[in-house]
């Protein structure tokens, strides 16, 4: 996670964007409008710099949609949804699901032991 000062700076950039684009003729309060720009600026910064491994924003959005869909289906049915129910609710192809699950796992360290005895690491196999 980036330092708080960097996140605050990104918030200022978002506020500046809101000031630049705000139109008083639109019937929207400035704080409501600015909140969107500030949130977008911080989220984009975190997507770009928040992790050692960069993931495209559209992939992050799909993962967030997947998690929200799973949570909603669990609340509705009281059980873990099947792999057929999730794509139906998300209105995506069933073939996308395995790819999303792999992307959700994140990166693994090359020093990760492959067995319990710690004798062989991932980097040893490369």
Task: Note the main attributes of this structure.
126 residues; mainly alpha; Arc Repressor Mutant, subunit A; 2 domains; 60% helix; flat
Give the strand content.
under 5%
- Overall SS class: mainly alpha
Relative helix content: 55-70%
User: Domains counted in the coordinates: how many?
Assistant: 2
Computed over alpha carbons, the radius of gyration is: 20 Å
Mean of all residue-level pLDDT scores: 86
Topology, number of strands: 0
**What is the makeup of the main sheet?**
none
Oligomer category: single chain
Helical region count? Answer: 5
Shape: flat
Low-confidence stretches: none
Task: Provide a brief overview of the structure.
With 126 residues, this protein is mainly α. Helices cover 60% and strands 0% of the residues.
Secondary structure layout plus pairing:
Layout: H1 4-21, H2 30-49, H3 57-77, H4 85-90, H5 96-105
Helix pairs in contact: 1-2, 3-5
Give your account of this protein's structure.
The chain is mostly helical and 126 residues long. It has two domains: 1-53, no CATH class; 55-105, Arc Repressor Mutant, subunit A (Orthogonal Bundle), CATH 1.10.10. Helices cover 60% and strands 0% of the residues. Helix 3 crosses helix 5 (96-105). The protein is flat and about 65 Å long.
């Amino acid at each position: 996670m980036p330092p708080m000062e960097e996140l605050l700076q990104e918030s200022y950039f978002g506020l500046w964007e809101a000031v630049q684009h705000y139109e008083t003729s639109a019937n929207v309060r400035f704080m409501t409008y600015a909140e969107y720009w500030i949130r977008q600026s911080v989220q984009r910064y975190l997507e770009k710099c928040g992790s050692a491994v960069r993931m495209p924003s559209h992939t992050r959005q799909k993962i967030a949609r997947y998690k929200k869909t799973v949570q909603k289906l669990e609340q509705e049915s009281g059980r873990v949804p099947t792999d057929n129910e999730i794509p139906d609710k998300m209105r995506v192809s069933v073939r996308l699901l395995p790819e999303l699950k792999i992307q959700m796992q994140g990166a693994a360290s090359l020093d990760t032991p492959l067995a319990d005895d710690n004798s062989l690491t991932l980097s040893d196999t490369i």
